[in-house]
User: What shape does this take?
Amino acid sequence: MNQLLAIRVFSRVVETGSFTKAADSLELPKTSVSKLIRELESHLGVRLLQRTTRRLTVTADGTSYYQLTNRLMHQLEDIDQGFSKAQGLPRGKIRVDIGGTVATLLVVPALPVFFAHYPDIQVELGVSDRQVDLIEERVDCVIRGGPLSEQSMAVRRLGEVSWSTCASPGYLDRYGVPKHPKDLDDHLMVTYHSAATGRVIPALFQRNDERHLIEGKTILSVNESNTQLAAGVAGLGIIHTFSYTVKTHVEQGKLVPILSEWRPDAYPFHVLYPPNRHLSNRVRVFIDWLVELFAQID
Assistant: This one.
């Protein structure tokens, strides 16, 4: 039995809650996963997992073994990194999940600087506005905006960004310029709906103590931020989004800011990672770099 491989397989089964998902994530046949778990249990002389046709649960011994071996596996990883040929620089792959505009407008353009400092790190970037399961999908960290609802995750604050409401010059020539958020009830808005729930997220407008939540009329609703931006540039309606998203298009005259005095509070962004997972050096330096990157946003 390859004990290190068996431990890796056992960890993935615990984290995913499934033999099939563990096999898929490790690119191993399901039969190999089952065999390694049986051999590991036989070697230890204890039952690590309780398996039925409907459910997989971790035994008390399995939980204890997972906690101890998980720590050990990461210590081995740090030892390997310590012997890197690149003068001790972190190396290896990290999996990161971020939203569309954060990826295309902030992170990806700045990655050459990161890779110049850390040439032995490979980044596997998942780009979408859906919320991923960090444990099941083996993601090292995610960037998320807004109030935090996942109390089970470890969190580091990245910063905050301001809002902007815009429309194309052609749209404003055709429909006029709204002077008050209530005017948007008579305007087309490219609304944003949650990829998880499908519900439209109203645009918030705030000036001093006065607040308005507006959906407006719509012929197009999207669940991805780059698409919302493209729709605004195309003249399909008014968009309410982050200022960094529209900055270049405003400078080029493709979008015109409106209702500038009606801005809600800045929107917080955080990086999240599993609290029970050892934070490797490569993930740590990537998160430090993200903090520096967000500090440069206007």
In short: The longest strand covers residues 154-161. The first helix runs from residue 3 to 16.
